[in-house]
Amino acid sequence: MNTLNNEKIANAGKAAAEEMSQMAQTAYTGFEKLAQANLAASKAALSDSLDTLKEMAAAQSPQEALAAHAKRLQPMAAKAAEYGQTVMQIAAETGAALGKVSEGKFSTTQKAFGEMMNNAVKNAPAGTEAMMAAFTQASSVGEQAMKTAQDMAQKAFAQGNAVVTDVVAKATTVKKS
């Protein structure tokens, strides 16, 4: 019976390692996309700033300098809104992908662990009932804590997504004004 439990434990460990690997790769891909978006936005901002500076330097009067600056404000607002939408899209895609990986694998691993625990409780030597009950209770509390953490992470992601959506909507409104 120990062999079966050891195999289940090893398989659960392998599954958990694979899940963590998938989650890390998914998160890393999201970070790469975000870094690319940040680099592109900073490059565009630098280019726009230099162009504005050149136009302002070439101005013949303060009014021309202000007009050159004002001419760039609306395109800058549009680019800021576009950047916000890109960041929001990356966050949504990455969050959805992480959720998919963790939800399916977590429930499978949780079920295998529960079966293993039930088997261990049934086959426990006489006199260890109190210890097994305490271990079962601790496992149940840990399981509930994981579920609570997952729920909180999903709520935090949804709230963050709502904030970004609101900021992008406001930036788009300012752009259209």
Compact summary:
With 177 residues, the protein is an all-alpha fold. The chain has helices at residues 2-58, 62-122, 129-176. The protein is rod-shaped.
Q: Notable features of this structure?
A:
single chain, 177 residues, mainly alpha
Describe this structure in words.
It comes from Simplicispira metamorpha. It holds the Pfam family Phasin_2. The chain is mainly α and 177 residues long. It has one domain. It contains 3 helices and no strands. Helix 1 runs antiparallel to helix 2 and helix 2 packs antiparallel against helix 3.
Task: Give the topology string: H per helix, E per strand.
Answer: HHH
Termini separation comes to: 73 Å
Number of domains: 1
Helix- and strand-based class? mainly alpha
Q: Output the radius of gyration.
A: 27 Å
Query: Biggest β-sheet: count, sense, barrel?
Result: none
Q: What overall geometry do the principal axes of the alpha carbons give?
A: rod-shaped
> In percent, how helical is the residue content?
over 70%
Low-confidence stretches: none
Number of helices: 3
Share of β-strand residues? under 5%
- The residue-averaged pLDDT reads 76
Number of strands: 0
